[in-house]
Amino acid sequence: MPVVMDADRISRALVRIAHEIVERNRGVENLAVIGVRSRGVPLARRIAAALKSICGDDVPVGALDITLYRDDLMRTTVGPQPLVRRTEIPFSIDDRVIVLVDDVLFTGRTTRAALDALIDFGRPKAIQLVVLVDRGHRELPIKADYVGKNIPTSRRETVHVKLTDTDGSDEVSLESEA
Amino acid sequence: MDAPAAQAVVPATSLRRKDLLGIAELTPEEIVLVLDTAEAMKEISQRQIKKVPALRGRTVVNLFFEPSTRTRTSFEIAEKRLSADTLGVAIASSSVVKGESLVDTARNIEAMGPSMIVLRHPASGAAHLLSRVCKSPIINAGDGLHEHPTQALLDAFTIRERKGRIKGLKVAIVGDLLHSRVLRSNVLLLTKLGADVWVCGPPTLIPLGLEQLGVKTTSRVDEAVEGADVVMMLRIQLERMEGGFFPSLREYFSVFGMTAARLKRARPDVIVMHPGPINRGVEIASDVADGPFSVILDQVANGVATRMAVLYLLAGGGADNEAVA
Q1: Do A79 and B316 touch (CB under 8 A)?
Q2: Which residues lie closer than 8 Å to B23 by C-beta, 6 or more apart?
Q3: B37 partner at 20 to 30 Å CA-CA among B162, B201, B215, B264?
C-alpha cells in the first residue's frame, strides 16, 4: 500500500492549517474545534494544541458522533446498526466560529450529517471545515476550507488514515482496488 | 474521553436478534453494548434540543395491557427523542374488552405496518408468543412474573454510572421475590456481569430454586445488607398480597423495611435503588427513599436513555415489513 503522507508530513500539514485558521479568523478568540468521531477527534486536539502554541490561548475542543444523523441509517432492509458513541461538546456553540475537523472528505455525506448534528446544538457564527485528506468524488455541494492534502483517487480505492492515538502510528496510505 | 470505564467484557458490535424478550437470551457482550449505547443516548437527553433523527418515519406501537406510568412514559419519551412516531393503545378502550385475543390484536396492529411493538402484559411469556407471530421487533416491557428486561438494563446502567463497574460488587435485593419480574431480570443480568448478588425476603416470598440462578438467599436483612455496594428494594405488590404471605404491612416494615439504621451496615458509598412505584413506610422509609444514598430518580432518568439504546439497536433488524407500510 503506497504511503501518501508520513508522520512528518501530517504534522506539518496540521501546523500549516492552524496558521491558516489564525490568519483567516484574525486570532482564535471565540473559536472552538470539534472533531468528527472517530479520527477527527485526535486531529481536532492536535490542531487545538497547534493553535495554542501559535496564539497562547486555549481553544475548547469537542467530539461529535454523527451516527444518528447518517442518511443511510435504516435504508437497508435488515442489518446491524452502526455503533453510536458519545457526543461531547462541553461548551455553547452559539455565536462561536466552529472549526469542524474530519480525516477524509469523500462524498460529503458525513459532513452533511455533522452540519445537521451541530445545528441541533445551537447557532454558530460560522462553521469552517478542516480535512486531512480531500480525495474528491463529492456527491453533495460541500467544500473544505482547509485541506491537509488533495489526493486524486479512483472511487474503488480506499484511503486509510492511521493516527498514533488510535492506531499506534501516523500515516495516510492508499489501497488500490482489491 | 472515550471509554466509559475499564470493563472486562468487550461489547458486541450489534444485537443480532429481532426482539428483546428477556435478559436470559442476551450475552454479556450484548448487555455491555446496550449500556455503552445508552451512554451516548444519555448525552442527547442533556441537550437543549433533545431529539435526533435516527428513527424518523418509523412507527412504534406501545401495547400496554397493564397499568404503568413510568415504563410507558419512559418508552414514549425515548421513542420521541429518536423521532419515531408513537402510538399508545389504551386497552380499556380497545377491542380487547370485546374479547379479542392478544395474537389477533397484535396481527391487526401489525397489518398497519408499525416498525416495532412494545408490549406490557400480565401473562408470563406474552412477548415470546408475539415474537413468534409478528415480523416486527417486539420489546418486552414486562410480562407477568417473568421478565422486565429494560428495567434490569437501566438498573445496570445506573450502577455502572455510579460505581464504574458491576463485576465484583455486592448487590442486595430485598423485598417480594416471588412476584417480581424485576428481580428475575436483574438477577440474570447482574450474575452475567459478575456481581455478587444476595436476595432477601420473607420465607413465604422466596421462590423455590432461586439459588440455582447463582444468588445467595437469606431472610435476614442485616446479612444481605452487610458491606453491600448496592441495595435494591423491590415493591411489595399490594395487589398480589391476598395470600397471607406476612402478617401485616407494619410488621413487614419492621422486619424488612429499609431504614437509615439498617443501611449503616452497607458500605459508606452504598446506593439505594427502587424500580418504583415505591410504598413509603412499607419496603422503604421515606428518609431513605429521599436521602443522600438514593438513586431512585436517576434510575428514572436513565430509563429513557436505556430504552433509546434498545429501540435504536433493534430498529436495524426485522425491518422487512417496512416495504408494505
Answers
A1: yes
A2: B31, B147, B149, B152, B153, B185, B188, B189, B192
A3: B215
The pTM of this model reads 0.91
Q: Could you give the CA distance from residue B165 to residue B146 in angstroms, rounded to a whole number?
A: 26
Q: Which amino acid is at A87?
A: T
What ipTM, to 2 d.p.? 0.88
The closest CB to that of B313, out of A78, A81, A121, belongs to A81
Q: What is the pLDDT along chain B (325 residues), one digit of tens a residue?
A: 444 444 568 888 888 889 999 999 999 999 999 999 999 999 999 998 999 999 998 999 999 998 888 999 999 999 999 999 999 887 766 667 677 788 988 888 888 888 899 999 999 999 999 999 999 999 999 999 999 999 999 999 999 999 999 999 999 999 999 999 999 999 999 999 999 999 999 999 999 889 999 999 999 999 999 999 999 999 998 777 777 788 888 999 999 999 999 999 999 999 999 998 999 999 999 999 999 999 999 999 999 999 999 999 998 764 343 333 2
- Which residue reads 446491524 in cell numbers? A80
Nearest to B40 among A41, A85, A116 (CB): A85
